[in-house]
Design a protein that fits this description.
A 6-stranded mixed β-sheet has the order 5-6-7-3-8-9, with helices on both faces. Strands 2-1-4 form a 3-stranded antiparallel β-sheet, covered by helices on one side. The model has no long low-confidence stretch (mean pLDDT about 95). Helix 4 packs parallel to helix 5 and helix 6 packs across helix 8. The two termini are about 30 Å apart. It folds into 2 domains: about 170 residues, Rossmann fold (3-Layer(aba) Sandwich); about 60 residues, no CATH class. By secondary structure, it is of the alpha/beta class.
Length: about 240
Protein backbone atom coordinates (compact mmCIF):
# COMPACT_ATOMS: atom_id res chain seq x y z
CA UNK A 1 0.00 0.00 0.00
CA UNK A 2 1.18 3.49 -0.88
CA UNK A 3 0.39 6.74 0.93
CA UNK A 4 0.75 10.32 -0.21
CA UNK A 5 2.32 13.38 1.40
CA UNK A 6 1.84 16.88 -0.08
CA UNK A 7 3.87 19.66 1.52
CA UNK A 8 3.92 23.42 0.86
CA UNK A 9 2.43 23.06 -2.62
CA UNK A 10 2.18 26.23 -4.71
CA UNK A 11 0.52 26.47 -8.12
CA UNK A 12 -0.05 29.64 -10.14
CA UNK A 13 -1.74 29.99 -13.51
CA UNK A 14 0.06 32.67 -15.57
CA UNK A 15 -1.74 35.74 -16.83
CA UNK A 16 -3.23 35.70 -20.32
CA UNK A 17 -4.02 38.82 -22.30
CA UNK A 18 -3.45 41.13 -19.39
CA UNK A 19 -5.49 39.13 -16.86
CA UNK A 20 -3.92 38.88 -13.39
CA UNK A 21 -2.09 35.82 -12.12
CA UNK A 22 -4.36 33.26 -10.51
CA UNK A 23 -3.09 31.44 -7.43
CA UNK A 24 -4.67 27.96 -7.43
CA UNK A 25 -2.79 26.49 -4.45
CA UNK A 26 -0.61 28.25 -1.90
CA UNK A 27 1.24 26.52 0.94
CA UNK A 28 -1.10 23.54 0.54
CA UNK A 29 -0.59 20.49 2.79
CA UNK A 30 -2.33 17.11 2.66
CA UNK A 31 -1.41 13.62 3.93
CA UNK A 32 -3.27 10.50 2.77
CA UNK A 33 -2.78 7.18 4.54
CA UNK A 34 -2.14 4.04 2.50
CA UNK A 35 -5.25 2.12 1.50
CA UNK A 36 -7.75 4.89 2.26
CA UNK A 37 -10.48 6.30 0.02
CA UNK A 38 -10.30 10.11 0.15
CA UNK A 39 -12.68 12.50 -1.59
CA UNK A 40 -11.71 16.04 -2.53
CA UNK A 41 -14.96 18.00 -2.39
CA UNK A 42 -15.30 21.51 -3.73
CA UNK A 43 -16.86 23.66 -6.47
CA UNK A 44 -15.83 23.42 -10.11
CA UNK A 45 -12.74 25.45 -10.99
CA UNK A 46 -11.21 25.45 -7.51
CA UNK A 47 -8.19 23.35 -8.53
CA UNK A 48 -9.18 19.75 -7.76
CA UNK A 49 -8.29 18.42 -11.23
CA UNK A 50 -5.09 20.49 -11.22
CA UNK A 51 -4.06 18.73 -8.01
CA UNK A 52 -4.69 15.30 -9.55
CA UNK A 53 -2.63 16.27 -12.59
CA UNK A 54 0.29 17.28 -10.38
CA UNK A 55 0.11 14.02 -8.41
CA UNK A 56 0.01 12.01 -11.65
CA UNK A 57 2.96 14.01 -13.04
CA UNK A 58 0.92 15.32 -15.97
CA UNK A 59 1.61 18.81 -14.59
CA UNK A 60 5.09 19.53 -13.25
CA UNK A 61 4.80 23.33 -13.21
CA UNK A 62 4.55 23.86 -9.45
CA UNK A 63 6.67 24.28 -6.35
CA UNK A 64 6.55 22.23 -3.18
CA UNK A 65 6.79 18.50 -2.63
CA UNK A 66 4.63 15.51 -3.54
CA UNK A 67 6.05 12.37 -1.95
CA UNK A 68 4.82 8.78 -1.85
CA UNK A 69 5.01 6.55 1.21
CA UNK A 70 5.71 2.86 0.77
CA UNK A 71 6.77 3.00 -2.88
CA UNK A 72 8.82 5.94 -4.20
CA UNK A 73 7.59 5.45 -7.78
CA UNK A 74 4.10 4.04 -7.44
CA UNK A 75 1.87 2.81 -10.22
CA UNK A 76 -0.77 5.50 -10.68
CA UNK A 77 -4.09 4.80 -12.38
CA UNK A 78 -6.13 7.77 -13.58
CA UNK A 79 -9.84 7.81 -14.44
CA UNK A 80 -10.58 11.09 -16.20
CA UNK A 81 -13.83 13.05 -16.37
CA UNK A 82 -14.32 11.80 -19.92
CA UNK A 83 -13.54 8.14 -20.74
CA UNK A 84 -10.78 9.05 -23.25
CA UNK A 85 -11.07 5.80 -25.18
CA UNK A 86 -9.46 5.51 -28.61
CA UNK A 87 -12.41 5.13 -31.01
CA UNK A 88 -10.41 3.09 -33.55
CA UNK A 89 -9.51 0.45 -30.96
CA UNK A 90 -11.80 -2.19 -29.48
CA UNK A 91 -12.70 -2.38 -25.81
CA UNK A 92 -10.03 -5.03 -25.23
CA UNK A 93 -7.41 -3.03 -27.14
CA UNK A 94 -8.19 0.09 -25.08
CA UNK A 95 -7.69 -1.79 -21.81
CA UNK A 96 -4.40 -3.20 -23.11
CA UNK A 97 -2.98 0.27 -23.93
CA UNK A 98 -0.98 0.73 -20.68
CA UNK A 99 0.24 -2.89 -20.65
CA UNK A 100 3.10 -4.71 -22.42
CA UNK A 101 2.05 -6.82 -25.40
CA UNK A 102 2.14 -10.23 -23.73
CA UNK A 103 -0.29 -13.10 -23.23
CA UNK A 104 -0.29 -12.36 -19.50
CA UNK A 105 -1.47 -8.81 -20.25
CA UNK A 106 -4.24 -10.14 -22.45
CA UNK A 107 -5.40 -12.47 -19.69
CA UNK A 108 -5.32 -9.59 -17.20
CA UNK A 109 -7.51 -7.49 -19.50
CA UNK A 110 -9.94 -10.35 -20.09
CA UNK A 111 -10.17 -10.97 -16.34
CA UNK A 112 -10.95 -7.29 -15.75
CA UNK A 113 -13.68 -7.39 -18.39
CA UNK A 114 -15.18 -10.41 -16.67
CA UNK A 115 -15.10 -8.62 -13.30
CA UNK A 116 -16.81 -5.66 -14.97
CA UNK A 117 -19.51 -7.90 -16.47
CA UNK A 118 -18.40 -6.86 -19.97
CA UNK A 119 -16.83 -10.01 -21.44
CA UNK A 120 -19.20 -9.86 -24.42
CA UNK A 121 -17.97 -6.37 -25.41
CA UNK A 122 -14.27 -7.11 -25.84
CA UNK A 123 -14.37 -6.76 -29.66
CA UNK A 124 -16.79 -3.81 -29.67
CA UNK A 125 -15.64 -0.29 -30.56
CA UNK A 126 -16.31 2.49 -28.01
CA UNK A 127 -18.71 4.37 -30.28
CA UNK A 128 -21.20 1.53 -29.94
CA UNK A 129 -21.23 1.71 -26.15
CA UNK A 130 -23.33 3.88 -23.85
CA UNK A 131 -21.53 6.48 -21.75
CA UNK A 132 -21.92 4.29 -18.69
CA UNK A 133 -20.30 1.33 -20.47
CA UNK A 134 -17.49 3.55 -21.76
CA UNK A 135 -16.80 4.63 -18.19
CA UNK A 136 -16.59 0.96 -17.17
CA UNK A 137 -13.93 0.43 -19.83
CA UNK A 138 -12.00 3.47 -18.59
CA UNK A 139 -12.17 2.07 -15.05
CA UNK A 140 -10.92 -1.32 -16.24
CA UNK A 141 -8.01 0.36 -18.05
CA UNK A 142 -7.02 2.19 -14.84
CA UNK A 143 -7.09 -1.07 -12.87
CA UNK A 144 -5.14 -2.92 -15.59
CA UNK A 145 -1.80 -1.67 -14.22
CA UNK A 146 -2.69 -2.86 -10.69
CA UNK A 147 -2.38 0.72 -9.39
CA UNK A 148 -0.95 1.60 -6.00
CA UNK A 149 -2.81 4.92 -6.22
CA UNK A 150 -6.04 5.45 -8.14
CA UNK A 151 -6.94 9.02 -9.13
CA UNK A 152 -10.55 9.64 -10.16
CA UNK A 153 -11.81 12.93 -11.59
CA UNK A 154 -15.63 13.11 -11.33
CA UNK A 155 -16.00 9.72 -13.06
CA UNK A 156 -19.80 9.59 -12.66
CA UNK A 157 -20.61 13.05 -14.02
CA UNK A 158 -23.34 13.25 -16.73
CA UNK A 159 -24.73 9.81 -15.84
CA UNK A 160 -28.30 9.15 -14.71
CA UNK A 161 -28.54 8.20 -11.05
CA UNK A 162 -29.25 4.50 -11.64
CA UNK A 163 -26.19 4.12 -13.88
CA UNK A 164 -24.03 6.11 -11.47
CA UNK A 165 -25.15 3.88 -8.58
CA UNK A 166 -24.19 0.76 -10.51
CA UNK A 167 -20.75 2.24 -11.19
CA UNK A 168 -20.27 3.19 -7.53
CA UNK A 169 -21.06 -0.39 -6.50
CA UNK A 170 -18.73 -1.71 -9.21
CA UNK A 171 -15.90 0.57 -8.08
CA UNK A 172 -16.16 -0.62 -4.49
CA UNK A 173 -16.26 -4.26 -5.59
CA UNK A 174 -13.16 -3.74 -7.74
CA UNK A 175 -11.34 -2.17 -4.80
CA UNK A 176 -12.16 -5.22 -2.67
CA UNK A 177 -10.51 -7.39 -5.33
CA UNK A 178 -7.67 -4.99 -6.13
CA UNK A 179 -7.00 -2.67 -3.15
CA UNK A 180 -5.53 0.77 -3.83
CA UNK A 181 -5.25 4.19 -2.24
CA UNK A 182 -7.95 6.34 -3.88
CA UNK A 183 -8.13 10.10 -4.36
CA UNK A 184 -11.55 10.92 -5.79
CA UNK A 185 -12.54 14.39 -6.99
CA UNK A 186 -16.16 15.52 -6.91
CA UNK A 187 -18.37 18.56 -6.41
CA UNK A 188 -21.26 16.30 -5.29
CA UNK A 189 -21.30 15.79 -1.52
CA UNK A 190 -23.63 12.77 -1.90
CA UNK A 191 -20.95 11.00 -3.93
CA UNK A 192 -18.41 11.78 -1.23
CA UNK A 193 -20.55 10.40 1.59
CA UNK A 194 -21.47 7.25 -0.35
CA UNK A 195 -17.85 6.35 -1.11
CA UNK A 196 -15.20 7.95 1.07
CA UNK A 197 -13.42 7.04 4.27
CA UNK A 198 -12.45 10.71 4.53
CA UNK A 199 -13.76 13.91 2.92
CA UNK A 200 -11.48 16.90 2.34
CA UNK A 201 -13.55 20.04 1.70
CA UNK A 202 -11.84 22.77 -0.33
CA UNK A 203 -12.85 26.40 -0.56
CA UNK A 204 -11.43 29.79 -1.45
CA UNK A 205 -8.88 31.10 -3.92
CA UNK A 206 -6.21 29.89 -3.55
CA UNK A 207 -7.88 26.68 -2.43
CA UNK A 208 -7.60 25.79 1.24
CA UNK A 209 -8.80 22.82 3.29
CA UNK A 210 -11.74 24.07 5.34
CA UNK A 211 -13.00 20.70 6.62
CA UNK A 212 -11.41 17.28 7.10
CA UNK A 213 -14.15 14.77 7.89
CA UNK A 214 -13.98 11.09 8.78
CA UNK A 215 -16.96 9.19 7.33
CA UNK A 216 -17.82 6.39 9.73
CA UNK A 217 -20.95 5.12 7.99
CA UNK A 218 -21.60 1.40 7.54
CA UNK A 219 -22.18 -0.11 4.09
CA UNK A 220 -25.92 -0.24 4.79
CA UNK A 221 -25.97 3.41 5.83
CA UNK A 222 -24.16 4.40 2.62
CA UNK A 223 -27.04 2.86 0.67
CA UNK A 224 -29.66 4.61 2.81
CA UNK A 225 -30.62 8.00 1.39
CA UNK A 226 -31.90 9.22 4.75
CA UNK A 227 -28.59 8.34 6.46
CA UNK A 228 -26.66 10.12 3.68
CA UNK A 229 -28.83 13.22 4.00
CA UNK A 230 -28.48 13.21 7.79
CA UNK A 231 -24.67 13.06 7.48
CA UNK A 232 -24.66 15.84 4.89
CA UNK A 233 -26.87 18.00 7.08
CA UNK A 234 -24.57 17.50 10.06
CA UNK A 235 -21.19 17.94 8.39
CA UNK A 236 -21.59 19.22 4.83
CA UNK A 237 -24.55 21.60 4.86
CA UNK A 238 -22.53 24.30 3.09
CA UNK A 239 -20.67 21.90 0.72
CA UNK A 240 -22.98 20.92 -2.13
Amino acid sequence: MTGLEIEALHKIYPSLGGTPLRRILENFHLAIDPGTFVCLLGPSGIGKTTLLNMISRLDSDYSGQIAFQGRPNPRIGYVFQTPRLLPWRTVLQNILLPLPLTEDSRQTALSLLADMGMSDTRDVYPGRLSLGMQRRVALARAFAIDPDILLMDEPFVSLDEATADRLRDLLMRMLELRPATVLFVTHDSRDAVRLADRIIVLSGSPAQIVKDIHVGLSDDERRDESAIEAFRGRYLAQSQ
